[in-house]
Batch of 3 targets.
Target 1
Amino acid sequence: MKISVIGCGYLGAVHAATLASMGHTVVGIDVDAGKVDRLARGLPPFFEPGLDELLRDGRTTGRLTFSTEFADAADAQVHFLCVGTPQSKTSDGADLSFLVSAAEALLPHLARGAAVVGKSTVPVGTVDMLRGILAGRPDVPLAWNPEFLRQGTAVKDSLVPDRLVYGVEGGKAAAFNPATGAPRAVTAALDAVYEPLLNAGIPRLVCNFATAELIKSAANAFLATKVSFINAVSELCDASGADVTELSEAMGMDPRIGSRYLHAGLGFGGGCLPKDIRSFRSQASALGVGSVDDWMGVVDSINLHQRSRTVDLAAELCGGLAGRSVTVLGASFKPETDDTRDSPALDVAARLAAAGAHVTVTDPKAVNHAWMRYPQLRFEASTERALEGAELVLLLTEWDEYRRLSPSAVGGLVRRRVVLDARNVLDPAAWEAEGWTVRGPGRAGSTVRLAEIPHF
Ligand SMILES: NC(=O)c1ccc[n+]([C@@H]2O[C@H](COP(=O)([O-])OP(=O)(O)OC[C@H]3O[C@@H](n4cnc5c(N)ncnc54)[C@H](O)[C@@H]3O)[C@@H](O)[C@H]2O)c1
């Protein structure tokens, strides 16, 4: 099948490459000529485990090409819209202008009967808006196929997703011929695209447009709620002397609760969760559903509060930040990606610098992305060099290589053995045995008292 993928960022590049690996002929279209140039040469424009191999394979087989020209998508039978839907600059709602431009640019090149399928995360009503743009083409069916991949495991998530969701006109009732049970037009086209996944038993849910538009935001809102819940409880632990890591471990053993996303720390960031919960809020408010609006407002503010909590704790550990040399481990918004969009680590690093600290940031993959956006910070690619002379070490993104750091080796590099483990991933006992003071959110009960920290 010939398929086009419009928008080749973290979602689209992976989607295009995995579809090609399933045997389809795929053209990726993007307005960013630099990105297209790299992708066309088989080079990922960002770090995503496994993507480089898929791009190389797609190039070798000739099934995967990239272009800035929408005309190159003209003979595709299915077009996936994967452009960004960032937070609007003027409100909490999503900015749909990239989606509108992409649909308008695609319109003159649509072959008769080709399907247009959205994958971006969008608010309810987006399909109606796009239908307006495609009004002159009643032969072109629309569908919404929200994407649930996670950066860092995006290739695996695309090849073995938990589920496929198809939002179609009229929902499930209209998607199949009642006499034969055979799927109609756009559902059949999507089944053909995902045939290898369906054959492997991946569940497929067919629903109406509003449901498909809401599912992704609702899923992200739930995950964000879980993170903010345990972060709020971590404050309670600090206030009471309880240990949030032991508490969440015990809570997570209840299968009704589950341990994933129940880990207290610096909170979430990135290009999706924060803007998705704000968009969810704004949709709820527009639809007059105050409970969801209020709920998401609290989840968002608890999340942002973790960043101020971390800065306050850093100031406490240093006896004031002015003039202190601090090292920040991690710049990406989470491990296994170089994405620094709304990175909690960089936000905290910038606030430390604004408070007068001399901040050195290091990261295994994201230094190049980060330094362009934060010129006030010093970046260092080598972990060892970044740690030299530090009076406080902050672990802000839980890359494996930071989890595995040796407290004695790091102790030989720093000026003071004080670590703020804002992701609660270090073993405090092992670090304290090497003379370190270890602090983390919700773990006040298990650490050395502040008064014992030597001052220079
Ligand atoms: N990143 C994720 O993990 C993830 C997961 C699921 C869903 N999503 C959703 O997918 C969408 C894209 O997210 P992303 O992280 O890939 O964003 P991104 O910013 O990495 O990629 C968007 C791409 O679209 C391109 N683009 C913009 N306007 C265009 C146009 N008119 N025509 C062609 N290309 C255009 C940009 O140049 C960019 O390469 C968002 O709605 C996001 O919420 C993202």
Target 2
Amino acid sequence: MEIKNAIFLDRDGTLNKGIVKENVDNFKLRPPHNPEELHVFEDISYLKSFLDRYHLFIVTNQPDIKKGHQTKEFNEFINSSILKKINITKIYTCFCLETNPGCECYKPSPGMILNAIKEYNIEIKSSYFVGDTWRDVGLCKNTNMTSILMDRGFYGNMKNDFLQRNLTPDHIINSFAELKNIIK
Ligand SMILES: [Mg+2]
Ligand SMILES: [Zn+2]
């Protein structure tokens, strides 16, 4: 049977630990930039139980490479560390800056999801997105997809980002172990 449903996954802060960025007045997480900062969450193994019915895709913004804060090599190392634990159909990455004119992929823009729909014939109505920031929930709003907020302990810190944009996640979880209650 051809799989047409997808569970789209944000990467940093969802599959691996997000790093708290201190020096700004608004709370922000950034990706790990070195091996000491990289921690892939063990609970991603719960995603394996969906592999017979769902494609798994990672959908991630990675502006830090252009900004010069992250190397291409370490970004790849994060991906391969995740792929060692769970089988992902494809990783979609936007390397643009948020301010890049003409970029249609920086979340919450829907470009990466639209590409996945085209390439794998995905049925968006029966698909899900799991992510930790307003950008992920905003992306769901822009694509009419069910949003699942992964709260790794920072949702409270980021709540204003959601309120300002009038975004409410459809579901909130603290671990991928809870996904079975939402996705059948
Ligand atoms: Mg994230
Ligand atoms: Zn882009």
Target 3
Amino acid sequence: MAQGWGQPGASKKFHYFKDSMTSICGKWMWGPALSDPENALEDGKHEHPENCAACKKKVILLERAANAQAVADSIIV
Ligand SMILES: [Zn+2]
């Protein structure tokens, strides 16, 4: 499923979308001009200055959680 940074038409900032048409900060949706998020989203460059601060905070937490899960999954009991 698509995830990554994208710039909704009316926004000056980039917002992070993850498995949803709504940004993870909850403020932005893809407009009709961005009907194909699969091609437009860029996953990475989380520290880009044009990124939305709320999305950035959240994506870092999400990545940390995903990494913690990966570590937990790799432990053989
Ligand atoms: Zn945002």
